[in-house]
Design brief:
Blueprint lengths: L1 H10 L9 E12 L2 E15 L4 H10 L5 H6 L4 E10 L2
Parallel strand pairs: 2-3
Antiparallel strand pairs: 1-2
């Protein structure tokens, strides 16, 4: 998912090098009839960019998931929550 978002951002000329782009990820595992299953994945992306790129980044974030093979594979089985946080880059 992180790679797909980076690719979509690159299309808007928004670079995503470390340490300007990272993600915090957590998930929930539930016991379903004696079988452990991943029930939810939460991803919080962090992006340091200049103020003039925030609008483009928000647009990218709203659309990237439809292009993500990993997300599209599990979206009907695992709840995916994502968020994008910005930090101003000088």
């Amino acid at each position: 998912m992180m790679g797909t978002l980076a690719t979509v951002l690159a299309g808007k000329k928004i670079p995503t090098p470390q340490p300007d782009y990272w993600a915090d990820v957590e998930g929930d595992i539930e016991n379903v009839e004696g079988i452990l299953k991943i029930a939810a994945i939460r991803v919080r992306y962090h992006l340091r960019i200049t103020e003039d790129k925030v609008r483009d980044a928000k647009e990218c974030f709203l659309n990237y998931i439809q292009f993500c093979p990993a997300a599209q594979t599990v979206i009907g089985c695992i709840k995916i929550e994502d968020d994008l946080c910005f930090e101003e880059k000088n």
